[in-house]
User: What shape does this take?
Amino acid sequence: MKATLTFLGTGTSQGIPIIGCRCRVCTSPDSRDKRFRSSAFVRYGGLSILVDAGPDFRMQMLSHGLCHLDGILLTHNHKDHTGGLDDVRSLNYIDRKAVEIYCEEKVELSIRKEYSYAFEEVKYPGAPEWNVHRIDDKPFKVFSNDGYELEWVHDVGYRYKALEGPVPPRKEVEIIPIRGFHDTMPVLGFRFGGIAYLTDMSSIPESEFSKLRDLEHLTLNTVGYKPHHSHFSLYEALDLAGRIGARHTWLTHLSHSFPPHAEFSRELGRLCSERGIASQVLPAFDGLTIEG
Ligand SMILES: [Zn+2]
Ligand SMILES: [Zn+2]
Ligand SMILES: [Zn+2]
Assistant: This one.
């Protein structure tokens, strides 16, 4: 079963441009150099799934015309991936139901602390409604949560049609989580059909590589050329791209230490041919849609 993934954000924790920075990346006129915090929207088995809801969640939903999600998967609890969770209130109003969140126990415990008002027994009216599903590193199912049908309209984008009559039986898809480590913090990446989306990792245990075979598209995080304690360096990401061997590898969570998009794309082409990497490695950009 094929999936499509739209990158809603491909920037590092501060986004690009960084407030106050006048470097050539932060002032680039190329729209591909404007990067929201990392997040992806996935259509898989008829379901609409969001990976991470960072501080740019609201603008990401608005700029893609999205107003319904069957589930939000969280990779880990860092604010650039969870800072927009309060804004799911808009979806609560539209759908008149809780938003379904899928995350590991440790992530749930920390969002319970940070958003304590969303979990109180007697809630302040208007607080976000979340329904948390605990996941771990074993395959799990996401269920549909809708009375809506989403369709892609050329030159318009995604459009919703409210379904008439009774809500159809729930659809479900199985998702394969990929364990990684962000420094020493365990994080999850996710595989949807031929697409694997990994971010905020600095290492992947050997046991996980068997889940990354036969990929059409792989996404990996990198924040710079130099070794970093919690993210892959560019050269580590290139080595992984070569080892995993997806047809295409997309880089995300990018910082302004890389050159502007077009120049960076050419540099990656050169580095891959020098290193004999068969995967086509390119920087992702906000709005890019891939299928696999
Ligand atoms: Zn991050
Ligand atoms: Zn800059
Ligand atoms: Zn992080």
